[in-house]
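2 proteins. here.
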Amino acid sequence: MNKKTRLAIACLMVSMLIGAGLAPFTARTAHAHDVQGLLDAVIQGPHRSEANRARDQYRHPKETLRFFGLQPHMTVVEISPANGWYTEIIAPLLKQQGRYTAAVPAIADDMPEAMKRRDAAYRQMLKAAPELYGEPTIKTYDPAAPVFTTDGTADLVLTFRNVHNWAKAGHTQSMFKGFFQALKSGGVLGVV
């Protein structure tokens, strides 16, 4: 079985486990109830739009993030957060004790205007609410040779609904190599 097949099977299994409502991964969580309460508070927070909250029933953010083992003290890198649907949950959870990095593709002159506007809106969202998001790091990367953070410093690298884009562009191998380099020994890569 080649690496692509193993990755596809692993991603499918994670999706099936989350979709089936099975218990989240908690082997590394000493205070699962505390994390659950914090996640509940952030997910229900007034900073989230009604449109984003309406997607919770389909995207299952609490179950997904608990499955991946998210903890408030972690160093987390979110890859290609787009409009920040997950950012508005993850960054506030990490604000007090952890570190949040958004790894966004470098904006090129030939990039579609819609992507440039989305990037600007995302950056403005984080900048406009430091009381909510703290001091997140925004790191730009080149998908052909990505560097997301200092090697070996991330407890958790997350990406949501992006792998198909990298596959189409021929960047899957370089992106996953970048994830591996970013993660600490024993760190977790969460892919949806």
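next one coming up
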Amino acid sequence: MSKALYSSATSLALDEAGKLVIVGGSEGVVGIYSIAEEKVQQSFKAGSTITDAVWYGSQPVVSTASGAVKVFGENEMTFTSHAGSANGLALHPSGDILASVGVDKSFVFYDLLAAKAVTQVYTDSGTYSSPLPVWLN
């Protein structure tokens, strides 16, 4: 039987090499778990329940119930474009464009190289949670 890392874990994301996992939960803590070492190598405070996670190269990225999208690590960034929970993330195959979707019925696109939100698109459809559009996955 294994020991729980975080209570109420709500998201996981495996890195490209298959060695590290982003683990996030309702406590607003993000852990970077090493599969080989069977332990948390690093942890970050996101400040709100983690709703989704992806990797930006070697940097963990999470969305939160407070609407923030956070990039941790070497080039830390925080985006607060959503009014309400940001529920899903997707990284474009180029690796430099991130998208988030929120309960405010919007998609936000971020240029991670420039460290800025570039556009926010509102829809008249029902509340979005996830998944994001096909091109983003």
